[in-house]
Specification:
Pfam family, one: Globin
Family: Belongs to the globin family.
CATH topology of one domain: Globin-like
Helix content: 55-70%
CATH class of one domain: Mainly Alpha
Organism: Ursus americanus
GO biological process, one term: hydrogen peroxide catabolic process
Distance between the termini: 15 Å
Protein name: Globin domain-containing protein
Structural class: mainly alpha
Number of strands: 0
Radius of gyration: 15 Å
Largest sheet: none
Number of helices: 8
CATH architecture of one domain: Orthogonal Bundle
Amino acid sequence: MVHFSPEEKAAVTSLWGKVNVEEAGGEALGRLLVVYPWTQRFFDNFGNLSSASAIMGNPKVKAHGKKVLTSFGEAIKNMDNLKGTFAKLSELHCDKLHVDPENFRLLGNVLVIILASHFGKEFTPDVQAAWQKLVAGVATALAHKYH
């Protein structure tokens, strides 16, 4: 179980209130698919993923990215129970989709990069540390069913 201090919770929730979920979600998933092209195999029904511009402009990538980032909103509401919050998604990704759990960590790291690029100086080292802790906790929770 991940423990967040009151300061870490405040750092995460303060920034989260300013995140454009649709924009950041689409960008995060798009970058994951571009930077780590082997992850594309889980999205073969998304149509054209042949180039970075095709991926970043793909409406299915954007829509699923929004869905993924919306689930991070649930994580933020339930920072003290990430495992419980993601139990069903862990089961889905393990049993039905057979997603490599390493991909959860990769997506979390891409999300941190997106947040840093969007928020610049506001994304201080303390804010980054809190977000890194959150995305690591979410990745662990999503990988729980695999263990």
